Protein 1
Amino acid sequence: LFYSCLRGSDRVPLFPSPARTHVNYEVKDNVAVIRINDPTSKVNTLTRQLQDDMMEVLNEVWGNSAVKSAVIISTKPGCFIAGANIDMIKVCKSAEEVSKLSKEGQMMFEKIEKSPIPFVAAVNGTCMGGGLEFAIACHYRVATKSKKTVMALPEVMLGLLPGAGGTQRMPKMLGLPTAFDVMLTGRSIRADKAKKMGLVHHVIDPLGPGVKDPEERLIEYLEEVAVGVAKGLAKKTVTVEKKKGLMQKVQDAVLGIPLVRNQVYKTVTQKVMKQTKGLYPAPLSIIEAVQAGVEKGPAEGYHVEAVNFGKLAMTPESRALIGLYQGQVACKKNNFGKPEREVKSLAVLGAGLMGAGIAQVTVDKGVATILKDTTTEGLARGHDQVYKGLNDKAKKKSITTFERDMTLSFLKGQLDYSGFEKVDMVIEAVFEDLSIKHKVLKEVEAVIPPHCIFASNTSALPIREIAAASKRPEKVIGMHYFSPVDKMQLLEIITTDKTSKDTTASAVAVGLKQGKVIIVVGDGPGFYTTRCLAPTLVEGIRILQEGVGPKKLDSLTTGFGFPVGVSTLIDEVGVDVAAHVAEDLGKAFGSRFGGGNVDVLKTMIQKGFKGRKSGKGCYVYSAKKKDKQVNSGTEEILKAFKLTAPPAVSGDEDVQYRLVSRFVNEAALCLQEGILADPVQGDIGAVFGLGFPPCLGGPFRFLDSFGADKLVQKMKRYEDAYGNQFTPCQLLLDYAKDPSKKFHK
Amino acid sequence: ALKPLGKTLSKPGVRNVVLVEGVRTPFLQAGTTYADLMAHDLARGALQGLLNRTAFPKEAVDYIVYGTVIQEVKTSNVAREAALGAGFSDKTPAHTVTMACISSNQAMTTAVGLVASGQCDAVVAGGVEFMSDVPIRHSRKMRKMMLSLNRARTLGARLSLLGSLRLSHLVPELPAVSEFSTAEMMGHSADRLAAAFGISRLDQDEFALRSHVLAKKAQDEGLLTDIVDFKVPGKDIVSKDNGIRPSTMEQMSKLKPAFIKPHGTVTAANSSYLTDGASAVLIMSEEKALAMGYKPKAYLRDFVYVSQDPKDQLLLGPTYAIPKVLERSGLTLADIDAFEFHEAFAGQVLANLTAMESDWFAQNCMGRKAKVGAPPMEKFNLWGGSLSLGHPFAATGCRLVTMVAHRLKKEGGQYGLVAACAAGGQGHAMLVEACPQ
């Protein structure tokens, strides 16, 4: 995406322009080598300065008759162009303003596409969004196979669309089905995959050390190869068109039929609706823009792209998603400084689902890890879990089998404490029982070195209670991982008032190394995430008791934007775990955490309905059938515990808001009590850890867009029907009273 | 003219180990005259040739160590089979070693160890590679089925196993041509290496041409005296290497890259080619050799093995090995009179020379304060190298050591340095000192 790009081409500047800082070029053997490097940032983005410089250079290049072809390359290590600058969109006040940006970008890239001389994009490093749109406007693409070379059109994840011709060029380049896949998922594409798809023409392997920094040399080498290609293009010894395979020809022929294309649009739209429940406008806008271009020609296509881009930028969904993106970036930083010593070896206690998962994400980053369990069976199971996790990656070819083996060599499974005298951190993932945690803590403290940190992966037990058994509470911290550990991005770190800053810095550093998005919260029963989850689940049980079936409850929750319905969530978490948490937190917080009857869960446990792990919970699980059936046993239990639903607050929408308001109110309480340091971490924790609807951006973003006053009104109605579980907290009341107060600026 | 001898590298309390003789079969391109033989046939040729040339009493051979890379499954200990077939005493034990392209270096240094420690007085070392025939296996699925078939007791069980046979079972498995750890072909890695060091196609072609021209000259002048004739049953006597083919720069420039397409620089013409051949050397304690009336050719002095990143530094062994071996013996590059480097690829040799000339590389990759420097070309591979003479993987090491000994004698030098890279990211260097004439 580009704007203000036509300066200079239409008029001769009266004064020599100020020095170009972001783009420069030289002519080598009739090839203009245009180099990009934003000196003010670690990455190149399409800022105004970069665009102005680029336009000036392009005009000079086009005005130079000695130049027969051109190469566009970035000299910034690991980054071609990371995309448009989000701030450029954020400052716009209206859809029209944003559309204008899009139109200017479209025109700019069209000029390159229609350039009298061929352009080669030489891509090394991040090439996303506007960067990729720039590259595909060029006539030929050479890319390095460096791990940092990633191509994507991630606009959809920000609630936007590729607004600088992306929706128009992609279908032509990749065919409709692949183009939709790339734009609707926003997925990252590595160079060799891009070559296979036809997104790039030519790939280059990364280089090892030579007589200078390898990255620097790789960029030089990329330039050498790209210049060679550019010369070939000018001499017509290299052609842009690739020979199409049979499959491609067949696909093209079939998609040449308008009826077939209509079917494609229909299918894609249905798929999008199924996955988004219609809560996300961007995918539909993308389909619309593509369809306009393909069916009605480029003029209409570009027009719809620009208009839709403007509209999308003004949607609350886009604001929410951009907020999440920026929050995620913020939660990938260590705000506690550099730890005194790096954690180079780590031990995990308990080889269960969580323990093995933690071990996996740790060895994955080359950290020596001891996985300790009390039984050989447990250990073998845990080891297999790690192996399977890595082997699955090898099967998908994201790592080689050799890398799998090497990674696995960092893992040491054992039953005793040998070697613990050398570890820098111990993370316990043993059974959630305070006395067991105390026993383990004492055993560990007897063998670990003084600097070693003890972290507890508990989901609800207050860390200060665990630390009470410690001789060195300043070294005790909570690290709450989410299951499955290798898939879930969030890590919730819990500090007590005794936890030292260095211990926190160390835990954050380990989490970052493990690739986690991290929130650091204060100590208390359930910390932040579990504390928000518990009342929501308890409310879910009440709703079930009131006669809303598990399937209906699921569809109401997913219909609101939660990725997993409440009934399914209970099964996934485990009925026993849910009961444990509900009871524990119920004791800690009293009647506010009431609602559904915990005995429902207890009866389910008695009957063996412990959720997915036991094959039965709210649903019956079988390996054969994909479509899960409601467990009739659970239905009977629910009948036995039946409650009468007050009609005034039991409509579908009210059911949804009862769940959401309890979640949001508890989140607000956490902020009010200082468990949460800021709303950003609250939003990130809720979305990445608990699946709060991303389109709403998290509880605080939701309050900002929905209005605290509106939620408070609803809660008052529910309070009348049910009592203090729905009493809005003081913070909510404050924000409701003054609509100008917002959690996010 | 002999230059005044520098200090000798003999060490107090350590036996002097000498190279008495070194021979090899002619090196032939795979698929040519040797095509119908087996690996141990070539090995026999080299071993018998060594016995013939030295007239060494068989029973005085204490031990035999032999190298091979691609193993013929029928002769997994090819050392033993070849020694028996070559008429060595059946009382002489023999074992086979493997270390990719430095397998016969490993065989020789094993022999050096045996002699230096006093375990043996006379050891035969060598290596063989036979690329005209390589073991091609049934697929894993097929092998599994065949093995189960062996164990199946009833006809029904056998038939049901056979019934599981699918077309995919019949797809054969070729020997790995790529590095196991990185799944990268060596030529591909060499091309990347050349690119990393900025070695141009032109430089590589020029170096390859130099190798062929020098080899041709050496062949014509009769300097390749390590060759022993080999009689192929039913065919002529082979007495010359057949891969030496000086071409022109113009012809070489026409070739397309062999590994990285289309922009790579490594081609068939600037790479070593698949070769059949075998070599053998007689290594003894100096004492015993002199007592038996032999005139040893050279002392085998300090040697080192090194290993590094198999991905990006696969073929940089010489760069790492040379400073180490020089330091160990207290010599500098300037003390060396004759260099013999294994030439896997022209780009690889030039990358090593560039790395040795680079302070950046020394400081950032080797943890050294400064570069060690590169050998002068007027002392470097003057009789051709693996690019032109051929490269039977496990036979090359002995060829290098024998050639450097012969060159020292011919050129009147005192110190020779042998260096080679090998698959797996390993390398080797050895100092050879001429014996007093």
Note: The interface with chain A takes residues 180-183, 188, 192-193, 195-198, 260, 262-263, 309, 311-313, 351, 354-355, 358, 360-361, 364-365 of chain B (CB under 8 Å).
Protein 2
Amino acid sequence: MAPVTPTSSETELILVEEKSSARIWVLNRPKQLNALNFPMVSRLLDLFLETEKDLSVKLIVLKGIGRAFCAGGDVANVVRDISQGNWRLGAHFFRTEFTLNYLIATYSKPQVSILNGIVMGGGAGVSIHGRFRVATENSVFAMPETALGLFPDIGASYFLSKLPGFLGEYVGLTGARLDGAEMLATGLATHFVPAQRISSLEEALYKANSSDLGIISSIISEFSQVPTLKEKSFYHRLTIINKSFSRRTVEDIISTLEREAAGSNDDWILSTIQSLKKASPTSLKISLRSIREGRLQGVGKCLVREYRMVCHVMRGEMSKDFFEGCRAILLDKDRNPKWQPSKLELVSDKMVDRYFSKVDEDDWEDLELPPRSNLPHHAIAKL
Amino acid sequence: MASSSPSSSCSSMEKINFRTKVLSRHLNHDPTGDKPFLQCSPCLSYTPPELSEPNSFFDVKLMRKLMDGHNIEDRDWLYNLIVQSKLFNPQEKGGKIFVLPDYNQSMEQQREMTMKRIEYLLDNGVFQGWLTRKGPEAELRKFAFLDVVGIFDHSLAIKIGVHFFLWGGAIQFFGTKRHHDKWLKDTEDYVVKGCFSMTELGHGSNVRGIETITTYDSNTREFIINTPCESAQKYWIGGAANHATHTIVFSQLNINGRNQGVHAFIAQIRDANGNICPNIRIADCGHKIGLNGVDNGRLWFDNVRIPRENLLNSVADVSPDGQYLSAIKDPDQRFAAFLAPLTSGRVTIAVSAIYQSKIGLAIAIRYSLTRRAFSVTPSGPEVLLLDYPSHQRRLLPLLAKTYAMSFGANYLKTLYVKRAPALIKTIHIVSSGFKAALTWHNMRTLQECREACGGQGMKTENRVGHLKGEYDVQSTFEGDNNVLMQQVSKALLAEYVAAKKRNKPFEGLGLEHMNKPSPVIPSQLTSTVMRSIDFEHDMLCLRERDLLNRFASEISQRQAQGESKEHAFVMSYQLAEDLGRAFSDRAIFQTFVDAETTVTDATLKSILGLLRSMYALVTLEEDSAFLRYGYLSVDNAAAVRKEVAKLCRELRPHALSLVSSFGIPDAFLSPIAFNWLETNSWSSAQR
């Protein structure tokens, strides 16, 4: 999520390389931490679609230039579009982005994402759904949407809800930052490779010239290392995370944390409570519901639901927190958003329900995902 | 489906060629191999029904809301809690996670796992307010959670049900403030673990005949409970064999040599460390055909002394000096007032039976949308099971009935949570009839689903077959189904006699149709007529009305010939059975129509219309009473049969969405409901 500046010509936003049977796609918008704008999203979508048909391609490698893999979707841009009176432009952006996420989640060729830097929001959407996610000591992962008045989208309600225990709720609601070791521990990353070995890893992958998942996995494993978790890592706090973030409502989660905090001066609990209290109340409630529904659904259903939600967020009927959040964090940068409704108890179940309903406008339609012949069954759920 | 012998349309040479092709494909299996070749050999590929079936014609989410009826989010929260814990034995099969108890564990291990799961749910606040919060909202939440737990495992639901609904319910309903204050909170927190000792070896449904006997000692102000003979041992007491610390004891109360009938007492049977208390003997009921995660035990009381305060005294009490006190003088009425609140058991059983049918149908129908058998053209592709009209006829009417009874179950729940003195009779009759109808329907559905899954239905991991053993007991506990149905008929007769005697119209129980003239059924049935609510309603009312008239006249005839009323009932069992079924079918139909009329969404309404007609017409087709008593002419019976087949065809495209609308998460179904090819692949077997 980066400030809006004029971009260089579209084709250069994604660098395309060919090495034997591999395709290397590089996100190239380093000043904006490779934040995905509409041209990038639609270019990636085209690339994925074209390449799937190309029988000579066996492997996709996705990485970013600079200190970020990708810091998210370019929501500031979206907000500008909407404030100019057309939320449909924003809807078009999300529609394209979510379709890309779905394509990646159901892709027939293996994708290796090199997450050597920041991975947030939309960045997670183009990597975590893929087969292999390589973290390094430079990785920083977060889903910071609740602080922006949004919610974890890009199919996050699918992969967050599949994390062990109730970590998904923790990561999704608090926007907690994960380092490479934590990404590996939670399963967000499949491998951890020290940054200095990344280029040799890439060479080895190109040389292997294979699409066999076992072969690719063993090659990455050769370069892998078992990182050590920091002493202060949240991963040592799984018991309390499960105890609190398993609760039925956001209010219950916070009160459970507060009960745990009472009498102890546990910094981690206090800062967790802090980040929940700083986030948009509406965002927290719809995010929790979304992750909870996600646990029982396939990735397609998750994206369809998130698309409904994001359309409601953009229309701002129940709350305009998204605009306020972007103003406070991305534009004015005063970091002091004034949420409306301002408290959790003011966000009723009825209001939350609305975010999950169809948008009541004549030509609005649910997200229609492309039919996929090789739909992995884990991606499907009937609910 | 076609027979398994080689069909004549397919020459043996073609068959051999086909087998060779299949075999060579198996041997040279290349996952990246040419797709078109794979596509023309459907037996080698799995296509999720989500891809092969048409998009849902109606809003599945909306339908799910209608089906589950209440507390949707609470349900999803609990599903989440279960799939997220290792205690619920998550297993990966064919790339998906399924949660299911390990039924291959020993009985003792299964019992311990049940207890551990309860502790996990307790720690996560699932039981908060189950006994300490009052009102319909709290009760519906409790019911929703019990539904979800039962979808995971029957033992878990029963163990929780015994503790909260039977032990806790007895204290709530039979006890007074002193009992509530002392026990309810501790029960909710599992500080005490309760069980419920009603059934004896010699007496089950006939509670009034139990032989356990309690006397009062005014010197020590204690009751003395005794098991006087072997047939008086308490039997099937869930929780008694291993875990329970306390029990409700049902016993005859003998005060000053006079028997005051059945009363309920609280007795401790184990101390906090699990040691059995003095003068209590406990033995195990042993391994069972289902519910092995529940520790059913047998209890003997050897003159066990309990404080006077342990009599649950909402209806009757004994004063410290040993006087029997009750506001209700008639022991019959006392007994009825006493047991009335215990209908919660029948409500939860009926509801859970329907959820099991949903599981069975979701699995069998999903399987039938991916499994093929036999080609109808030589060397043509094999046909999807559910594309055979015969397979549709086996499953889709049961699906429609499950929908209908699901509405019936929801109605029963709301009736129960709104209970008031004026509703007690209705609740008793409806819960009796529905409990019998729904649990019988469930067993029949599970059997059909098991067969529809073929050999795969035999595997425990696929649930349907196993559920038969688990749920068979439902037709017995909380009242034998046959006995319950007889009670329904008896109650209807009482209504009949009362209305005739006082020359007053029928009121309540949906019997108002008795006040109108007998409905006239058209001599020639068209499709439009048969699918109208009016016709369907008329048919079901006609049968109920006529059977009630016949039943009443047979009883009065027998009585006129000098038989006792009781004997007359016993001898008129055939009509009583028919009448009980007629009442339940008609009442269920009514709940369907009521639900249908609340729906505003047009697509939902039209699909519900199909299901409702299917329910009604298949009921007409199945009960021979319609022909026996001439409610349907032979021609009309044939027309009904034709219409059922037509409805099967019309429902077929909606089969997937209709089972998706049950809202049961994938993890609670089974591997054959999904990619059974991968589940059973060699590489999966190596893991």
Note: The first strand of chain B starts at residue 90 and ends at 93.
